[in-house]
Amino acid sequence: MKFQNRLLLAQLAPLVPLLLTGLLAVAALWTMTSSVQQARALQVRRMVTAADAVGTFREEYALLERYAETGDLYYLDEARLRSQLLHTRVPVISQDEQHIEHLGLLLGEYEALAGFSGPPGDRGEAQRAARAMVQELELRHSEFRVAMQADLRTVAQTGRTTGAFIIFMVGLVLVLGGWVSYVVARDLSSAMRELERGTRALTAGDFEYRIELERQDEFGELASAFDRMAGRIAELDRMKIDFFANVSHDLKTPLTSMSEATALLSEEVAGPLSADQRALVSVLESDVRRLRGLVANVLDLSRLGSGQAELTPGDVRATIRTVVSELELLATQRSVSLVFRAPEELPRVVVNKGMVDQVLMNLVGNALKFSPHGGTVTVEASLREGDTWVRRGDRAVLITVEDEGPGVPEVHRKRIFERFFQAPDQEHRGGTGLGLYICREIVDTHGGRIWVEEAQGGGARFCFTLVPGQALPV
Question: N or C terminus of the chain: which is more exposed, having fewer CB within 10 Å?
Answer without folding.
Answer: N
